């Protein structure tokens, strides 16, 4: 805080004291003292008022900086609408915080008040075409609002701020209060927050676009590899999707999930420079022949560098088995990189349900039973538990592939 206000207060008090001392000598009338004290009181009160406003502004900036730090920490992952509403609630001290997205038409609410998101959007819809921030002191006097729902919940004051990206309104953040009336500073601080949120949304869009572009290139390469043998068509994509579902159940980070997906997508890339491969059945699992060469070749396809190491491990070791009977190095248990243990589960499951000859395929539920039977021998127990937890999502993946295949056959 600047020293200007304390100095002025001190100067005012000093001036009053000097006048009092001189006044006793010069016999100044009482009414002059009264006017002097009145002026001094006004000066001191206004200065204290300015200090209080400055303290409020500093407090607002402090809260905004804390929330900005949270936004910056979350910019490596897709923003969460629930997190955003909690931030809004903390930022403007509101009874009900909300976040409305124009892109997916979702509404998220953070409040003890039970208002259905779709009803809140409907109530506020007359305001959602406005591209400017809105502050409504008394909702009952706002003709544009559908007041029934808001009145029933006893809402009095509203603040609504647009989230803009490249000149387009992509959503709104705001709050509703039952008693306390919002002040314009709530609009100002929420506007700053919405601008930072727009930057985060844009960064996530670009990141998603880049990731999708990279994934499409890899899928094109995998399709070219799998075209050598139709039996492998779609195998890598299914293994990647199943591996990703397992990873999500294991609460892996976004970076770990990305590496897992790419490693699973590329796990059979080593077949690109091998002769035609036939699929053989060996006791409890299906595997490729020649067995060891494609994992080593696949790992060698990746460029050097630490950033590729985890993906390389997934490709190189996805045929290692928990009891040490796998290849290429015969690793066992936790010596096998975790990413490879996850891919192994997805790979074996797809071999039993889709990859093997049609007469030897088993239904999804039977394949799940067979996977569970190999827990602790061929497959990592933790990965199998996560696989079972994700089984409904995995079932949906295979339902989509079955529909796609049926359509191709009909054509």
From TrEMBL:
Keywords carried by this UniProt record: Membrane, Transmembrane, Transmembrane helix
Pfam families (alphabetical): HD_5 (PF13487)
Annotated TM spans: 7-25, 31-50
Keyword flag Transcription: no
CDD domains listed in its UniProt record: HDc (cd00077)
Domain HD-GYP: 210-403
Coiled-coil features, chain-numbered ranges: none
SUPFAM superfamilies: HD-domain/PDEase-like (SSF109604)
Gene3D superfamilies: 3.30.450.40, Hypothetical protein af1432
Protein name: HD-GYP domain-containing protein
